[in-house]
Amino acid sequence: MSLKSQEAKIQPVIRCESVYKIFGENASQLIREAAGKIDVEKFKSEGCIFGVNSASFEVHKGEMLVVMGLSGSGKSTLLRCISRLTDTTAGKIFIDGEDLLAMKPKELIEIRRNKMGMVFQSFALLPHKTVLENIAFPLQVKGISTKDSIERASAMIELVSLDGRENYYPRQLSGGQQQRVGIARSLAVEPDIWFLDEPFSALDPLIRREMQDEFLRLQGMLHKTILFVTHDFDEALRLADRIAIMKDGVIEQIDTPANIVLNPATEYVAKFTNNVPREKVLRCLDVMEKAPKGAKFSKVNVSNKAIIETVAEQVLGQSLPVPVLDEKDKVIGVLNRKTILHVLFGKNEAA
Amino acid sequence: MGDTAAGVNLVERIKRSKLLQLFLLICAFLILYFTITPSENNYLWRLPSLFAIVPIKLNETVNYLMFDWFPIDIWNADIEDYEESALLKEITRSFSRAVLFFIELIREILLGGKKTIVAFTSWDFVSENEWAVWPALPWTVVAASAVVLGYALKGKWLALFVAFATGYIAVFGQWEPAMETLSFVLVAAPISVILGLLFGIWAFKSKRVEAILMPLLNIAQTMPHFSYLVPVTVLFGVGDHAGAIATVIFATPPMIRLTLLGLKAVPPEVGEAGMMNGCTKTQLMFKVLVPSARQNILVGVNQVIMQCLAMAVIASFIGAKGLGYNLLLSLNQLRIGQALELGICIVLIAVVLDKLSLAWAKKQIDYFADQSFAQRHKYGLIVFGILIGGCVLAFIGTYLFQGGINYFYLIPHNKGITTEPFWQAGVDWMVDNWYAQLQGFNRGLIINVLVPMKNAYLGMPVAATFLLTMGIGFIVGGLRSALIVGGFILFIALTEWWDRALITAYMATFAVIVSMILGTIVGVVCAQSTNSSKFILVVCDTLQTFPSFIYLIPVIMLFGVTDTSVLIAVIVYATIPAIRYTVEGLRNVPQALLDAGNMSGVTRLQRLRTIEFPLALPHFMLGINQVVVFALFMIIIGAMIGTEDLGQYILKALSDKNGIGNGLMLGLCVAFIGLAVDHVISTWAKQRRAMLGLE
Prior knowledge:
A: alpha/beta, Rossmann fold, CBS domain Like, six-stranded mixed sheet, four-stranded antiparallel sheet, B: MetI-like fold, 5 domains, two-stranded antiparallel ribbon
């Protein structure tokens, strides 16, 4: 409880209040006529298309929100609204409490130069600049001296393990390497907010996996506030603190990976979660039960952050409930064989 | 009842079948053709020349602007007093002077001279001081540097070719005019590139500018070269600078187009990345978008250079010096041998510049860190060495060659070897031996084909023309296309040159038909194998770099100064795009479809007929578009050796002091013929491509 109230006091880094992005020739006129109240059916009958339909959410400092959706679901549009690469039709977006949509071009350039970094699906590297120059580019645009920016860019190259490729041109690199450059470039100005637009979608499955690991390693070091867009549900599960699932511009559900897998809010979400191997997603603390008072525990115990898959065999081998320990080795719950079977085979089959 | 049902059925069928519509249209056209009586007062026969007044008004306006509007006082150094002069005249004059200065500057770097020094001092100063002469770069230095450039950009084959070309030019004594032409290109091309870049960026930034610019570019690129010359002579006078300015006007449109194309082709994410990195608008444009569009923009530069060279020959009509001027002289004197040699020089320069600039466009910057100063500046150091070596060689030459000509320094005009007598003898021999056959062919063609065709065109009532053209427009693109085509034709019909336009149209039709047949046959044959299609495309590329003028030389050699000559030149010139588009169209049919066809067991001919042709057809049609434009250009240039179409009148306007109005109107007439055809064909090709799912 105390944790939650603390969170409420801290300002969210990104806050969206019923953000709309509506495409269509007469969209702006209809908005003016609507005067704040948007009737979706009316707009649609006039031939408008909703890229983003009333998106409201917050992202807190150090949190990673993954926006998941299939193509055409409006996930990239939402990201582009928040980075102001497209104009938002209606609604409000606040970055650290400041009204993003009210910013003048100059302020926008300032905030992009200092607070935001973005990684693109097609890498979007400048073909005429070397790796080093690409990474130094946002610094040089800012007016930082060549010496300092090169120094900083070299540090970034080390961070993404591209040492020795400083003077290559993008076309001389593989896709994974190019995206490392893209990541290094987006981090060069040390932004607080990190936007990633399907950063690994253009890569081969093996490289994608490797880059996800690399990405988690970086985030473990840097603790950025992240908005990550993907069409890959597994990727979302792997990376996210929270996932927002979008369909036709609407956020269908926004929750932690475990809650989404356990309690899909809509049928659409359930379609994704049905085939997810839950033992690979859920952690002990997601499914544990309260420890009955005075009951006997087995001698084996498990950590609360452990993935079920890794402990299933252990738990199934015990006749007594297995205690779940937190970081301070305090028992915070128990796992029964039945729970594990539920996770492994689904509720119905196990019953 | 049955009759009405059949009637409805027929209407339905006509609505559905475009072929049926076309058939009905042709029937209606023929009825009109034979029923309307030729008479001056019959508006169905010829429209009144309502626009006849326009050129006169245009002339008056321009004259007023040039000589009377906004008089200002100008200091005249000769009479040491202020003089009254028109503002516009002074502006164009100082502009001319600036352009001329740069041409002279480059020319004197290459060939030596006094005019640049004069520009900073005075003629008196130069004549008093013997030493005040800018020395020329020895030709060996220029040639060797070009060879090094070729090597640096592409490798040894290009270097060898450059060596051959420069060697040829020097040995045949054409070094001086060649450098004059080059200096002219080196001034006109950068101006065109900068202008094109600026306008391209502007059009990219503003949809409205693009909407205004596009139709202007369409007109500019279909106006014949000659019609640019007239207004330029009026505004800027005659001479090298006027030629350069006309060239700039002619060469800028493709640069604008390619800049715009390049900028639009930059992936949107690259622009977004620039924005997210916090670029200002200027930074975004010049640090992100323009460099990312580099390749397309450099192809634009290549186009500009080629257009400049093509125009360099035509600009000699208004006094641009160089190879073109000499070529014109020798053609006028019917010295075919000399014309041939000059033609080859121009072609060599064209091909060299084309290859060099394309190599530059395609060149990727390479990994070069951790290299020593000498390695990084390898080519610069070599050129510096060549400069010193060339100077030393030239110095030695002063002792070696007695009699005033230092062959290691500059080879004066026409002091090289020449093969003219050989060619002349060849021409004489051909005239002696083949005269009867050639003339027989010539006469046969004129009497049996050309004259009847011409008369058929001239006997066409204007109403029938409108019905046919607008009808085709309607069938292809609906009412909008019909109105657009009708508008273009109406403009021409209201001028006093309708009959001339019909003659131009007849020549164009004849040439286009023959070119298409030839081009399709050659194209289909060559497209059968990868190697032969590559080969023919290289041949087409090379032929296309030749300035159009060049094509007149061999035909005059064979057929003398007749309509046949012009038509054959036109056909040869226009067949190039026909071949190219046929080959490209056939080669671009997706491999998967060919495989699918093969697996269904088609024979080679069946595959061609049922798969390759239908899919390549839209591309063929765009080829026809090019063929028409090429043919029109060449017909107008053919006026130089005597035809009686629009081109002849444009040529006349050139020597007329009040020619500006006529020149422009005539140019527009030619452009509108081309644009009408272009509109119909590209509308059709677009629909067809959309239908086939190719876009």
